[in-house]
Model the fold of this input.
Amino acid sequence: MLAQVCAVLCGLAALALLVRARFPDFWSEVFYLKDLLLALVRVLWRRRLRPPFLAVDRFEEQVARQPGGTFLVFERETFSYSAADRRSNRIAHALRAHSALRAGDTAALFLPNEPDFLFAWLALAKLGCAAALLNDNIRSGSLLHCFRCSGAKVLITSAELQGAVQEIIAPLIEDEVCVFVLAAECVSAHMQSLTEKVENVPDSPIPRSLRATVTFSDPAVYICTSGTTGLPKAAVLSQNRLLAALAVLASIGVTGSDVVYVTLPLYHTAGFLVGFIASVETGSKIILKRKFSVSQFWKDCRKHNVTVIQYIGETMRYLCNTPKMENDKEHRVRLAIGNGLRADVWKEFLTRFGKIKVREFYASTEGNVGFFNYTGKIGAVGRVSFLHRKLFPFALIKYDTERDEPVRDANGRCIKVSTGETGLLVVKITKLAPFVGYAGNPEQTEKKRLRDVFQPGDVYFNSGDLLKIDHNNFIYFQDRVGDTFRWKGENVATTEVSDIISQLDFIKEGNIYGVQVPGQEGRVGMAAVTIKEGAEFDGTKMFNHITKHLPSYAQPRFLRIQSTVEVTGTFKQVKKKLVEEGFDPAGISEPLYFLSAQERRYIPLTEPLYTSIATGSVRL
Ligand SMILES: *[C@@H]1O[C@H](CO)[C@@H](O)[C@H](O)[C@H]1NC(C)=O
Ligand SMILES: *[C@@H]1O[C@H](CO)[C@@H](O)[C@H](O)[C@H]1NC(C)=O
Done:
């Protein structure tokens, strides 16, 4: 073990001397990256421990270190590390006694942001089980699909979500799934109250031997990423990835005395890894919120002495859009971690709310590389360092957006873009940068692998993201291939919109894309939707839901009602066809609707209305 760490360090030192002449920035890079390097050493160190040291073992270390320290604050409740430990022990005992769940199995968590989400996850981790985190907004077919992807045999849900599980109970019974509800009462005889069982078991520690068979390549967490296909995919995070996340996230400046405000959903990487897992590493206090709320944000920060906040681009914009207050700068927030922050919002945020260190990063849930902005260059997601290139060989390659594939030369090889040019990020798949793929979906997994990139037989991870590197090695996120479009200067994530649309009870599936409107920049949102059997399209309900949950730029202005989802060919082709057909009723036989802000509902899109929109007399 020690020998290995020494070898790594000596190797790095030798490398350092060699490259010093060619890379004058080298030492400043090492300075910036020293925490990252220490983190790497820590990961290597832990990986050698037997029995295997998992993320949950770090939690147990924290419990031993500061049993009375606050782990979590949620609404009016406060949980110490010891209380959280005991509660998760009880859940683990109950699960073990009342289900067949054993190390190596998977259970799905279909829970809102609440303490039991974390306790149930800890319980599963203590048993050596993987957890599939299900988006609590998805319903019916998508929910079932996501659940099945993970191969879970146990589903844990909450009082408020059991109705959604009831909708899919028939196939769950068929698959012999064990459904537990964290409530005293269940709506169905096919569900069991976990609350009641938890009360009748001891809170004694779960022996580590129960998880001794778990290896680093085993799945730890499945995270559903809703793709363009409408059906989500389950990205697999291995134990190794979790361990790396633990160390890397702790290297970005969060410490044990920090108070971390977690408002993002725990079922996504941002909330789960950056909010929860990183706090387990550092031993910080978590202030958990059910949802992000603009009006409560700063009040909460002041009340709880929050020092670290998390963001996604939108949340920062919402905060900046509120009326200015005299006490805007009265808070203790010193660090903001997240991604998707646009340069102008960033500047405004800093001017308005004071000197907060912003750590912007780029990473995808399933990807095998990440970039961090260590330097403070507004607009960039990070800086490409020499070490980074060595450890994670990546390239930006030319991409043909029309044909939706990388450009290849006469020999069939991909072509690197020149400095300052935008290209598709591809990352060599290696031992250090593995790509695990999607659970139960070899097809989608293979699609993310790009072969014969620069040499016959080489394999790269296709990030699907377009990035740019400038002459000073700063790296900038530009766009997502296929998944996003821009409207009124804002990126619209189609997945986010389809998540919202699929919450409507009459919608079966929604496929979101952008269409061009004559005389307008960018593309405006359009949704091709299918209606559930026996249900009817309700233009008013749809309007209310969409305008309530989506920012104006992301609201689909046009709807196209399809009787079936086209399944032939790759989904991209289907989407491409829809984009090409646009919203002209003359060329489309299916019913079309238009979001009328005036009438506050979706109204049928007629030929005269189409003409008014196309000529600009009806403004969008
Ligand atoms: C926040 O800090 C102040 C001043 O140090 C302290 O009086 C207060 O109790 C703290 N509040 C919480 C919730 O920790
Ligand atoms: C990078 O971080 C610095 C300092 O935290 C910040 O000022 C800068 O705006 C960041 N750049 C980007 C593009 O996020």
Remarks:
- The CA atoms of residues 223 and 268 lie 6 Å apart.
- Residues 567-573 have pLDDT under 50 and may be disordered.
- The chain is about 35% helix and 25% strand.
